[in-house]
Amino acid sequence: MSMTEEAPRVFERPVTAGEPSAAPGIPPLATERDIVFSSEEVNVYYGSFRAVRDVSFDVRRNEIMALIGPSGCGKSTVLRCYNRMNDLIKDARVTGTITYRGTNLYDERVDPVEVRRRIGMVFQKPNPFPKSIYDNVAYGPRVAGQKKGLDDIVENSLRKAALWEEVNDRLTDSALGLSGGQQQRLCIARAIAVGPDVLLMDEPCSALDPIATARIEDLMQEIKQDYTIMIVTHNMQQAARVSDTTAFFTADIGSENDTRTGILVEVDATQKIFSNPSDERTENYVTGRFG
User: Fold this and answer.
1) Model confidence over 125-171: pLDDT tens digits?
2) What pTM value is reported for the model?
3) Domains of the chain by residue range
4) Which of the two residues, 3 and 249, has the higher pLDDT score?
5) DSSP class of residue 176?
6) CA–CA separation, 95 vs 100, rounded Å?
């Protein structure tokens, strides 16, 4: 398809929750392992300052990719590129190319709202709405104009988030009364309810205790058969446990003003990153010699 001849078809229409994610222009999800994201020479700027430079890698369907590295290396900044959340930051701009199933995410004809529906996000701190458990999950479908089948959507989403058995008898209770781990799984259910293809997770367990963290990690393994997942984590053991592929970032520190520019060091199978990395900087980080 020529990008100059017609609008990108991958974002032509919303997909109704519960409907298969494939749409015109998207290969069926049941086919061979295809590339969901392809990034080439991606740079992120805040004003004139380049915060991240020269990021290139692919993300494959039904895999979990972990982004690891020391603080200030641009992991979260990179993650936000994939659902255009950086658009919401004043003076932020992204150069290079990021394609989602062959469509340039930053093509001017692509609707960022539809991008964020297809590519959901779970944040570091659980952020349920001050509404009932039911209304939290039903919120997205309602905004999209869905009126029928909400009960099924809520139940299916809560089941996928491994929360249904814990809350099915109190759906009208406030979501704010849930524990931290339950709130985070509710936020995952809320993201799932609008029928996304990809889930971005920005340190989803950093505010949780070890038991709740284990539940979220188990959940990621369970749902990756339906979703592609990218996770930012400072917990290297977590990256080693849950991910299929790992990208290691570090930061160049400016000699004059101590500014940090994130750079991608290497991307490889997680087992190789943690056992036999190609770059000495990666080895030093994963073995605790720096960072």
Assistant:
1) 999 999 999 999 999 999 988 889 999 999 999 999 999 999 999 99
2) 0.86
3) 32-122+197-286
4) 249
5) G
6) 15
- As its CATH architecture, domain 32-122+197-286 has 3-Layer(aba) Sandwich (3.40)
Kindly state the DSSP code that residue 86 receives in the 8-state scheme: G
Compute CA distances 83 → 86, 87, 136, 224, 257, whole Å. Answer: 8, 9, 21, 18, 31
| Residues ≥6 apart with Cβ < 8 Å to 173 | 132, 133, 167
Here the tokens at position 234 are: 């400072």
Is residue 121 within 8 Å of residue 140, measured between CB atoms? no
d(CA 70, CA 248): 9
pLDDT in tens, 23-73: 434 434 434 458 999 999 999 999 999 999 999 999 999 999 999 999 889
Classify residue 71 as exposed, middle or buried by CB count within 10 Å of its CB (0-12, 13-18, 19+). exposed
